[in-house]
Specification:
Pfam family, one: Beta-lactamase
InterPro entries: Beta-lactam-related, Beta-lactam/transpept-like, Beta-lactamase/esterase
CATH topology of the largest domain: Beta-lactamase
CATH superfamily of the largest domain: DD-peptidase/beta-lactamase superfamily
Structural class: alpha+beta
Number of helices: 12
Radius of gyration: 20 Å
CATH architecture of the largest domain: 3-Layer(aba) Sandwich
Keywords: Signal
Protein name: Beta-lactamase-related domain-containing protein
CATH class of the largest domain: Alpha Beta
Oligomer: single chain
Length: about 350
């Protein structure tokens, strides 16, 4: 199942076909503003053609929600609808939320992108990492992209942090970049923890300072009482090759704080989160999360032109907290940023 989240604008590339199934047969529900009705047809087509079992899509335009739709089924039994109460694990989309948490700390004067990590986290300076900056971590230049820990270790924040403190970087920090699939979350998240005067976990900081004030659901550490709402993932693999992915459907993984890859949310929450970076919303009920200067700094490239990603072996461009999506996916348009949830 896939969750589509378009925050300010959307570009649809699917060629439309005649939709013969009724909305009730595919559980298609929600709203579209005038001029946006065509999105409903595309979502219906996606379910009818079985590209997705269940999906949701939410679009904000100029600070207002113009599309908020759900369709399909919660799981393969096709007995429960995929609806606006359904939650979904979104993998690397979580990184964007973690980057926003860091940006909020920068805005409040608690962190500085150009400062050394050791200014806030002295233990990190071991094994050739003393010159690492906050920006290096946020733009995948820290040199610690790989990790062979078990999921049981991933559940233990302190264990992962201590391991990363001792790790020797694969390249001199700041001299190259390579996608940090999982370690990004603990590295960036520990910076937030180190400067939070309330000594909260990253998930608690996100709840209190970001998702709570915005009245959205985006969990890094899912409360037990919400587990029943999480739509299970189907990786489309045979059993032997999918065992390594099974953990992502386990409650223990959902309850852990793995802030590069286990966030649980829905489309309307992710869309509202990103919309809040640009505008006050709903008659000023929800205030803009980041000011213009901080947003500009957080979304400016920190990757040299044409520098090859040493992990992905392609050209990738990262800012101080986000993948610059207009480079990876030019069809999304100039200035687009964030993280897809297609892979860790």
């Amino acid at each position: 199942m896939t969750m589509y989240c378009y925050f300010i604008s959307v570009l649809v590339l699917i060629i439309p076909t005649v939709i013969s199934n009724s909305n009730s047969n595919i559980n298609l529900h929600g709203l579209t503003a005038d001029g946006w009705e065509y999105v409903k047809d595309y979502l219906a087509e996606n379910i009818i053609e079985e590209r997705d079992l269940g999906a949701s899509i939410s679009i904000y335009y100029e600070g207002k929600v113009v599309v908020d739709l759900t369709a399909g089924w919660f799981d393969k039994t096709k007995t429960v609808p995929y609806d606006n109460q359904t939650l979904q694990l979104v993998f690397s989309t979580t990184k964007g939320l973690t980057g926003i948490a860091v940006a909020l700390c920068v805005q409040r004067g608690l962190l500085n992108y150009s400062s050394l990590v050791t200014d806030y986290w002295p233990e990190y300076g071991q094994s050739g990492k003393a010159n690492t900056t906050v920006a290096d971590i946020l733009s995948h230049r820290a040199g610690l992209p790989l990790d062979n820990s078990s999921f049981e270790q991933y559940y233990n924040w302190s264990s992962m942090v201590h391991k990363l403190e001792k790790e020797t970087p694969l390249w001199a920090p700041g001299t190259a970049h390579g996608y940090h699939p999982l370690t990004f979350g603990w590295l960036a998240g520990e910076l937030v923890r180190r400067v939070d005067h309330l000594n909260r976990s990253l998930g608690e900081f996100i709840r209190d300072e970001i998702t709570g004030p915005l009245d959205i659901e985006f969990y890094v550490g899912l409360p037990k009482e919400n587990e029943y709402r999480v739509s299970p993932l189907d990786f489309g693999l045979n059993h032997s090759s999918s065992e390594q992915y099974d953990a992502f459907n386990q409650q223990s993984t959902h309850e852990a704080e793995i802030p590069a890859g286990n966030g649980i949310t829905n489309a309307r929450s992710v869309a509202k989160l990103y919309a809040s970076l640009f505008n006050d919303m709903v008659d000023n009920k929800y205030k803009r999360l980041l000011n213009e200067d901080i947003l500009k700094e957080a979304t400016k490239s920190n990757t040299p032109v044409n520098e090859i990603d040493l992990v992905l072996n392609v050209t990738s461009v990262f800012s101080k907290g986000f993948l610059l999506m207009d480079q990876a996916f030019p069809e999304l348009g100039p200035g687009s940023f964030g993280y897809s949830g297609w892979f860790i």
